[in-house]
Amino acid sequence: MTTKKIVDCINAVFFLLFIICAFLFTFLRGNETYSYYENRNLASMPVMTSEGMLDGTDFSAVETYLADHAPGRNTALKIRTWTDLYLLRRPVVNDTVILRDEHILLPYTKHEYDADTLNPAWIEQGAERISETLAGHAELTRSYGGYFCYIAVPCQYVCYEDAYPMYLNNRHTYTERSSEVLFTRLDEKNIPYIDLREIYKSSGTLREYSSTIDNHYSIQGAFEAYRVLLETINRDTSLNLHVPANEDFALNQIENPYLGSRIRKLCGLWESDEHLWKMTPNEPLLYLRSIKGEPENGEVYALPDNDWQEVLYTTYMGGDLSESRIDTGREELPDILIYGDSFTNALECVLWYSFDTMYSYDFRYYTGHTLDELIRMYQPDVVVCVRDYQQLLLETGNGK
């Protein structure tokens, strides 16, 4: 055997050992289920079946699992992100639009005209389905004298629509068509709603109330939603709630570095001076908070014990909880039930202050009862649905 063949054999053996070690390490190490930087769940190991092996789906699932759990995956992700961001200076990195001059990270969206979502029939049917569902909840709430209201919150791509480069899609057409059709349906069915996009635009705060690195609105934007909601309730009912002014709450910056959710601020490599803020009533009020039925002494702001640890939007209410409740012991005030997804979190941080009991549900995770069952059970004086513009015509999380 020649020297070259010996070297080739040694290389092949070492390469095979490397593959085997990496394979074993992937299976033997702790099974992670969530990718912190990518803000998504990792693939699970599939249960192999004869049918899945014959058609190849099981092997594809195993390949996805191995890719998601490969050793050094986070390091490789950060290296690739740094290369695309600073060396190659790509305009889109990790499905994130990079606006260097304005220091903004925006979500990348496929071109609208290639998507079914611009189909007029799809929009009409979606708006009809959602409005029918909301009409049922509203009618049930009215049946015992309660009040139902729908709140539409502009997500980040709506607030920064004009910031997208001309060669990238900003979803303007879909935003206009979907909101117009849905709000027309709500008007026809006599369902009270609040369009925060128009309220923010009229006060010149559309961008001001949105994050530059995250999909959500700020606590200031949530506080404005809180005020407008109370004004709407007072207009349509006899509850006569006190509408707080800005000076009724203390506004304080949270000093911890804020990562946001744009691929966790591009794997922690993107510099930003944006911070989270919190608003607390100037007159302290005792309350009892429970999560999934268990008493909890935690505050509505979930903060670390130091000012250097990174924080996320989950600072508000501790993140996406399937169910939670706040009792203030003020029986003279009405009760409220609020449901939606993560866009309820910041609003809940201030909303509880105006009610005796606040029930909160996220139907992406809560499966104990339907929304109608909960309404019948608690008969809250006010029921509020919160949806962002990206979810206006989607049924996921709407209480079924």
Provide a descriptive summary of the structure in words:
The protein has 400 residues and is an alpha/beta fold. Helix content is 38%, strand content 16%. The strands form four sheets. It has an eight-stranded mixed sheet with strand order 7-6-15-13-14-12-10-11, sandwiched between helices. A three-stranded antiparallel sheet has the order 3-4-5. Strand 10 and strand 11 (294-296) form a beta hairpin. Helix 5 runs parallel beside helix 7 and helix 9 (219-236) crosses helix 11 (343-351). The chain is globular. Residues 21-25 have low confidence and may be disordered.
Q: What order do the helices and strands come in, and which of them pair?
A:
Elements: H1 3-28, E1 34-35, E2 40-41, H2 50-55, H3 57-68, H4 73-87, E3 92-93, E4 96-99, E5 104-107, H5 120-143, E6 147-153, H6 156-159, H7 172-188, E7 193-195, H8 196-202, H9 219-236, E8 249-253, H10 263-268, E9 277-281, E10 288-291, E11 294-296, E12 323-327, E13 336-340, H11 343-351, E14 357-361, H12 371-378, E15 382-388
